């Protein structure tokens, strides 16, 4: 008897006796590689992998010394620059592409094993893209060790590359198209013969001619059954091995049983053949899945298109000379030249030159953005007009571009609740379907045995739950891709689903409703220090701050005159503090001087309505005040109006002063607002709204907004906001257009509507078609057409989301 390898399924050579004890039983292995992999799995307590897998992995490989030597190259800092991000002194993070992933159990195995390794802080594998995001402590474990451990499990890992990933996807697409073409050619020929056979049965045809046509149909069906339909058999087999029921189980049963039955009838010359139903069923199913895969890959391709924006080479200026170098060789602080029409190689600050940049693919903003000295540019944007001399501020994984892709990757890895529910329902439905098929077959066997086979076949085909399974994923993928094109990036899987339920939108003020670029209008001395020195002290304290107000102070002074600040500290919701020449200073909102009223402090009354007042205080006295004014975003009024017309409540929670918040609230016609709020106050106010039953969408941009962004059911961070705000939010407005918030909410509602339509259609179709097929009113060829049309309608309905 020929044994197969328990690990990879390949035949075990007769002269080889390699075994591994798995779950108490001795299992045969086909090679030393598989034996090593299986031992690694068992030794790490991961033998449950063999219970849950639905597909066979590739054969195991020995990690030989030469291979280890190659892997050690990935530990070199110069090599890591292109794909590793350093979160702090020792923590690193990288995206790897895993080859050999065949089923969900492979994901489980890799994640569990990697998380057990000392020094690995997190490991997350995306099943759709086969990308693994791993973070580790460099002081405890090296990247080469992690890669070797992955190889020990039988998989290959290497740094993710968008071009390579695209090539693999194109290869799979070609293979799918080849299967569809073969099924299509066979179906067309078989259908012509079937029409002749049906006509011949009605008008008379010689038996020998009928037999000849059946043999020809059999021959034309062979490529479909033994090649085009192979993916269905594999999926069904792996599902059964893991004691699960996938939709491919009834599909495979239908194709195989129809083929065996029709072949038997062909050779015996009696009965009806179903070669036309087999070829049509396979063709339509393959086509529907090809469209489904295309809808899913739209969001993946959108992310990879972003990565392709960055050029491979750039011009570096060193010692006054220009040299063309790979982008990988760039370092922070390098000077580079971006010529007109070229893509900018790295995140940078303009040092010399004036131009404009096209950031459409990154932000959705179709208009070019002016760039002058001091402005930031992002990697991947196109320099349009004049040459720009740039100082590099971010390379490799530390660019805005890479950050966007990381967030998009995280969103794709998370499955929305509604899609998880659909998967569970489809699983139960498949089980119920098989039971009903048996019941219908039993009844027809008793009533009219000659029609049993036809009825069973029709029931299996017509009720295949393909449409039910793809109803939610296809809609979510289409909506996410469309939003990204408009400059709205979903960073969490649940975001779109939750947006549909939002009934209360809460805004931060500075940097959200306003541009967050306030201009310093006035400096007022309130103590013994003159106004100019107060301004220098304030600007010095703001050097380490990311708050939008910081740039206003720094732009108002000669930065070469700033003081050295020690013990600089950000006080969330209040301001900043630090020591200058041994004296402690604090700069911030009214809470900095909360024990004295404005009148007592002598602030003049001519402060502009809506202006923000920032206070400077030492340990003993209030030294000065600064009046800054900001502008309302151009589309803020339009957004608030749209939200209110839709019946959505609108509020402002701000850390700014009462006067400034009231001024903007009045301009926007917002009745509910709170001022001078610390981060904990905002979070408490949000929780009160949630307890009252509100589904809140929070919009913010700063470090102090992070807790409330994380606490809201769904949250938006402005594209120009802080990294902390981006990481805490569910959606990032790359375009910084507030009206896109309303568009996202509308699309979220429309997506849920489309998903529900898809569910109603898929379930209704199955419940309607099942009784007709069970009573013998639906022939197998019509069942094929009905099932495939059902799946196509679901995909096309999802693709109209925009």
UniProtKB/TrEMBL annotation:
Annotated GO MF terms: ATP binding; ATP hydrolysis activity; copper ion binding; P-type divalent copper transporter activity
Main location, first listed in the record: membrane
Subcellular compartments: Cell membrane
Membrane found in the keyword field: yes
Family per similarity comment: Belongs to the cation transport ATPase (P-type) (TC 3.A.3) family. Type IB subfamily.
GO terms of biological process kind: copper ion homeostasis
Descriptive protein name: P-type Cu(2+) transporter
Enzyme class, spelled out: translocase
Gene3D superfamilies: 3.30.70.100, Calcium-transporting ATPase, cytoplasmic domain N (3.40.1110.10), Calcium-transporting ATPase, cytoplasmic transduction domain A (2.70.150.10), HAD superfamily/HAD-like (3.40.50.1000)
Membrane-topology annotation of the record: Multi-pass membrane protein
InterPro entries, per database record: ATPase-cat-bd, ATPase_P-typ_cyto_dom_N, ATPase_P-typ_P_site, ATPase_P-typ_TM_dom_sf, ATPase_P-typ_transduc_dom_A_sf, ATPase_P-type_domA, HAD-like_sf, HAD_sf
Keyword Metal-binding: yes
SUPFAM superfamilies in UniProt: Calcium ATPase, transduction domain A, Calcium ATPase, transmembrane domain M, HAD-like, HMA, heavy metal-associated domain
Top-level taxonomic group: Bacteria
Occurrences of domain HMA (ranges): 92-158
Keyword tags: ATP-binding, Cell membrane, Ion transport, Magnesium, Membrane, Metal-binding, Nucleotide-binding, Phosphoprotein, Translocase, Transmembrane, Transmembrane helix, Transport
Catalysed reactions listed for this entry: Cu(2+)(in) + ATP + H2O = Cu(2+)(out) + ADP + phosphate + H(+)
Species for this entry: Sulfurirhabdus autotrophica
Transmembrane regions listed in the UniProt entry: 180-200, 212-233, 245-267, 273-291, 425-447, 453-479, 759-775
């Amino acid at each position: 008897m020929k044994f197969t390898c328990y690990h990879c399924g390949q035949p075990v050579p007769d002269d080889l006796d390699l075994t591994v004890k798995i779950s108490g039983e001795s299992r045969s292995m086909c090679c030393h590689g598989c034996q090593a992999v299986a031992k690694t799995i068992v030794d790490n307590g991961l033998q449950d992998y063999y219970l849950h897998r639905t597909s066979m992995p590739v054969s195991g490989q020995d990690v030989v010394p030469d291979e280890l030597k190659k892997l050690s190259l990935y530990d070199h800092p110069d090599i890591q620059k292109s794909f590793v991000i350093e979160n702090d002194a020792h923590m690193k993070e990288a995206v790897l592409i895993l080859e050999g992933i065949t089923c969900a159990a492979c994901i489980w195995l890799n994640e569990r094993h990697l998380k057990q390794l000392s020094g690995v802080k997190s490991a997350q594998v995306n099943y759709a893209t086969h990308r693994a995001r791993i973070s580790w402590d460099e002081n405890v474990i090296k990247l080469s060790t992690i890669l070797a451990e992955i190889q020990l499990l039988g998989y290959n890992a290497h740094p993710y590359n968008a071009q390579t990933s695209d090539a693999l996807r194109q290869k799979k697409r070609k293979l799918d198209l080849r299967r569809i073409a073969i099924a299509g050619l066979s179906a067309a020929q078989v259908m012509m013969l079937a029409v002749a056979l049906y006509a011949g049965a009605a008008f008379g045809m010689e038996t020998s001619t009928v037999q000849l046509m059946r043999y020809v149909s059999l021959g034309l069906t062979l490529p479909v059954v033994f090649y085009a339909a192979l993916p269905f058999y594999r999926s069904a087999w792996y599902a059964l091995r893991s004691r699960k029921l996938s939709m491919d189980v009834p599909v495979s049963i239908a194709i195989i049983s129809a083929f065996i039955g029709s072949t038997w009838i062909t050779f015996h010359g009696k009965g009806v053949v179903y070669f036309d139903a087999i070829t049509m069923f396979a063709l339509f199913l393959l086509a529907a899945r090809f469209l489904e895969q295309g809808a899913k890959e739209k969001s993946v391709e959108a992310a990879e298109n972003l990565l392709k924006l960055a050029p491979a080479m750039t011009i570096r200026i060193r010692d006054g000379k220009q040299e063309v170098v790979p982008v990988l060789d760039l370092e922070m602080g390098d000077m580079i030249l971006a010529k007109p029409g070229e893509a900018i190689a790295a995140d940078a600050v303009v040092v010399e030159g004036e131009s404009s940049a096209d950031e459409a693919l990154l932000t959705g903003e179709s208009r070019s953005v002016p760039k002058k000295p001091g402005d930031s540019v992002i990697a991947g944007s196109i320099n349009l007009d004049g040459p720009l001399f740039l100082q590099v501020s971010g390379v490799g994984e530390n660019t805005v571009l890479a950050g966007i892709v990381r967030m998009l990757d995280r969103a794709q890895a998370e499955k929305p609740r509604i899609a998880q529910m659909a998967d569970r329902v489809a699983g139960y439905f498949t089980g119920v379907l098989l039971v009903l098929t048996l019941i219908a077959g039993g009844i027809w066997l008793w009533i009219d045995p000659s029609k049993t086979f036809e009825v069973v076949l029709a029931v299996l085909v017509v009720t295949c739950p393909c449409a039910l399974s793809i109803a939610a994923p296809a809609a979510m993928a289409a909506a996410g891709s469309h939003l990204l094109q408009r400059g709205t990036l979903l960073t969490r899987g649940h975001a779109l689903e939750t947006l549909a339920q939002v009934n209360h939108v809460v805004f931060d003020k500075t940097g959200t409703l306003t541009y967050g670029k306030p201009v310093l209008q006035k400096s007022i001395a309130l103590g013994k220090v003159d106004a100019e020195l107060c301004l220098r002290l304030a600007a010095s304290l703001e050097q380490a701050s990311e708050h939008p107000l910081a740039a206003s102070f720094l732009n108002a002074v000669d930065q070469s005159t700033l003081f050295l600040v020690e013990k600089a500290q950000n006080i969330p919701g209040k301001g900043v503090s630090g020591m200058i020449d041994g004296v402690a200073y604090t700069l911030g909102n009214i809470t900095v001087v909360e024990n004295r009223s404005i009148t007592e402090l002598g602030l003049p009354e001519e402060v502009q309505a809506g202006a923000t007042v920032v206070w400077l205080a030492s340990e003993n006295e209030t030294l000065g005040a600064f009046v800054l004014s900001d502008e309302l975003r151009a589309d803020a009024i339009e957004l608030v109006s749209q939200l209110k017309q839709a019946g959505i409540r609108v509020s402002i929670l701000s850390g700014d002063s009462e006067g400034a918040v009231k001024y903007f609230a009045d301009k926007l016609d917002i009745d509910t607002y709170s001022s001078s709020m610390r981060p904990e106050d905002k979070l408490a106010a949000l929780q009160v709204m949630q307890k009252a039953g509100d589904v809140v969408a929070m919009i913010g941009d700063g470090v102090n907004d992070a807790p409330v962004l994380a606490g809201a059911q769904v949250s938006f961070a402005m594209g120009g906001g802080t990294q902390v705000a981006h990481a805490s939010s569910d959606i990032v407005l790359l375009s910084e257009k507030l009206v896109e918030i309303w568009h996202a909410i509308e699309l979220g509602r429309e997506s849920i509507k489309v998903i529900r339509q898809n569910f109603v259609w898929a379930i209704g179709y199955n419940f309607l078609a099942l009784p007709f097929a069970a009573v013998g009113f639906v022939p197998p060829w019509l069942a094929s057409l009905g099932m495939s049309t059902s799946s196509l309608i679901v995909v096309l309905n999802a693709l109209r989301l925009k």
